[in-house]
Amino acid sequence: MAEALAASLPVQQAAPAPAAPTYEAIPASMARVVDIEAEIPVESVQLDGLVVTKIIKHSREAPSSSAHGLLLGLDLDGVLEVSNSFPLPHHAGDEDDKSTKSAARYQAQMLRSLKEVQSDDSVVGFYQASTMGAFFSQALIDTQAIHQDKLRHGGIVVVHDITQTARGNASFHAFRLTKAFLDAFKKNNFSAPSLIDHRLTFSTILEEIPVKIRTNVLLNSFLNTLTTPTQSHLPDASPAVASTSSLPPSFSPLNLGATGVIRNLEQVNDALDAYRTEEGNLAYLQRQIAREKARADAYTAKRKEDNAARVAQGLAPLPEEDVSRLFRIPPEPSRLESMLLLGQMDAYGKSLAGITSAGLVKMYAAKASSDI
Amino acid sequence: MPLGQPSSAVYIQNVPAGSHSSQPRTPTLVTLHPVALFSILDHYLRRMETQERVIGTLLGVRNDSGEVEVRSSYAVVHKETAELVAVDMEYHRTMYELHHRVHPREVIIGWYSTGSNLDTYSALIQNFYTQETGQHPAIHIALNTGVEEGQQPGVKAYVSSPVGVHPKPENCVFVPVPCEFRFHDAERSGLDLLTSESSSPLSDLETLAESLKTVSSMLDRVLGYVRSVLSGEVKGDPAVGRYLMDTFGADTGELEKGGFRDSLQDTLMVSYLAELVRSQAEVSSRLALVTAS
């Protein structure tokens, strides 16, 4: 009960006013959840209604699937409460110093401004829009890895799927990087042996955290007003206008047309092609390594043979030279890119499977109703 | 889609005779996006104890037909006492510049405040925002949160016009403009998520199941009505009957003419393909771990 009580209590938002720092005693029920060192692990993510709409709006308006922004909030007793968010400007590819600096300035200014109106101003993670469920990308992993060091609890990433939302099911997933992946990332080593050591496949890069949606009481009551139909004042209004509501029930999940299947198939194809190219590169590098190794081995073997002959003839053996300096063996190639591509392919496949399974149900439902 | 209780206001259009094309049109309709609405509510929740109402800037897009789309909003620091009202203009400018970097198309179109009383201060703030919006009239949105007793939650939109022989900034008439709640169809499911009882996002199939349940309960209701009409308990409404006929007479001819089997085959094929791709990806990622050892 105390836990539920603690969860329902409002989070202390603003720091005490600097003029009169009066610290109240922490009530006993809350003492357990006071967590200065971030020791209570985050078990779920709670998105505020405002954040949900903000992310959806930004994702829909931004060109392609590049929309991303920061999430603001606090964590309390294992629940990461995301109470606000703001979009980050879209930077066109080039990561030069100037654009990075201006982005940082934008962030700092935004946070300061939000603090002035008593909003939460601590960054807890970021959000990323994606299409067809494929969100694995180098940029996402990099950003998250940076956050993991800087933010309390390492930060989370909330992934929003535009396509699924357009189909009538708003999709939000929260992730964080796994320990194994972070370890490999810190060493910047994604060669095959390192992957084996860390047991890394694309499915173990990120771990999912359950997402909860929360609408605060005020928002809830307002939404209720919006969904309640209002009766028209006119006595002889036609049924279409007699009772109107701001938020009429929607039946878009029942839409029979499987839109986006073709696009999705194309995406799968593209991902396959990209993966093949990447595999080709890897195989080329592997062959090169093997060739260099063979040459180095042959050289040492020959030197040994020569030395044996010289010893037999009573001559002094030639010095054993450092082979690695003679032959440059390329380092093991990084398999991160190919792993991410596989992850993307899997995500496309998953969303395709999702569409078709729902499609099957809808088709049989429509068939059954047409048989009546 | 109206917002809140219907009002009996008559919307007067003040279009000067032979209006010049250079003169921007008076707004005929204000539409409000959920993000703007929810931001206002959030701002109201986070107000200081001493604040009676909160104000902020509305951003959006105007189109040629006189419609004004409010797309987003941000809070602005302001202070009201019995003697004076102060709006932090610098804050307002900074926020606008920040916002402008992400959404370059959205411009300042007016301001919001909570509560529905329009007083002298409202007129003064309105006067300030009229300077900010340039030649276009500034919109004022008054949002009643409905937390005070006896007040209905709702949103009203106004434009202002000067009043008196010698117009003064503290005097103006707020002329009501129709206000609607509007969002893109693709954003609909997000609102469904907020209004649904479950507190976590559902899977595709679960959402489908929910929808089917709703349809089923609606069918039961209709069936109940039809039975009671047939048994003579209720007098049938011809309009309802006509709507029912239109709905249930929907053409499913294509499905019956072999279309069903074709679609079924396609869907199954795609489903098989998707699973195949997924399992191949999984196998491939595991093989990468095995081959090198």
TrEMBL record, chain A:
Domain of life: Eukaryota
InterPro entries in the cross-refs: eIF3h, eIF3h_C, JAMM/MPN+_dom, JAMM_MPN+_peptidase_M67A, MPN
Subunit structure: Component of the eukaryotic translation initiation factor 3 (eIF-3) complex.
Family according to the record: Belongs to the eIF-3 subunit H family.
Segments forming a coiled coil: none
Gene Ontology MF term list: metallopeptidase activity; translation initiation factor activity
Cell compartments where the protein resides: Cytoplasm
Species name: Heliocybe sulcata
BP term (GO), one: formation of cytoplasmic translation initiation complex
Record carries keyword Protein biosynthesis: yes
Protein name: Eukaryotic translation initiation factor 3 subunit H
Residue span(s) of domain MPN: 45-181
Functional description taken from the UniProt entry: Component of the eukaryotic translation initiation factor 3 (eIF-3) complex, which is involved in protein synthesis of a specialized repertoire of mRNAs and, together with other initiation factors, stimulates binding of mRNA and methionyl-tRNAi to the 40S ribosome. The eIF-3 complex specifically targets and initiates translation of a subset of mRNAs involved in cell proliferation.
TrEMBL record, chain B:
Keywords assigned by UniProt, alphabetized: Cytoplasm, Initiation factor, Protein biosynthesis
PROSITE patterns, alphabetized: MPN (PS50249)
Listed InterPro entries: eIF3f, EIF3F/CSN6-like_C, JAMM/MPN+_dom, MPN
Entries under PANTHER family matching the protein: EUKARYOTIC TRANSLATION INITIATION FACTOR 3 SUBUNIT F, EUKARYOTIC TRANSLATION INITIATION FACTOR 3 SUBUNIT F-RELATED
Entries under SMART domains matching the protein: JAB_MPN
Similarity field: Belongs to the eIF-3 subunit F family.
Listed GO biological process terms: formation of cytoplasmic translation initiation complex
Subcellular location per the Swiss-Prot or TrEMBL entry: Cytoplasm
UniProt domain MPN: residue ranges: 30-164
Predominant place of localization: cytoplasm
CC per GO annotation: eukaryotic 43S preinitiation complex; eukaryotic 48S preinitiation complex; eukaryotic translation initiation factor 3 complex, eIF3m
Protein purpose: Component of the eukaryotic translation initiation factor 3 (eIF-3) complex, which is involved in protein synthesis of a specialized repertoire of mRNAs and, together with other initiation factors, stimulates binding of mRNA and methionyl-tRNAi to the 40S ribosome. The eIF-3 complex specifically targets and initiates translation of a subset of mRNAs involved in cell proliferation.
Name the record gives this protein: Eukaryotic translation initiation factor 3 subunit F
Assembly notes: Component of the eukaryotic translation initiation factor 3 (eIF-3) complex.
Keyword Plastid assigned: no
Gene Ontology terms for molecular function: metallopeptidase activity; translation initiation factor activity; translation initiation factor binding
CDD domains assigned to the protein according to its UniProt record, in alphabetical order: MPN_eIF3f
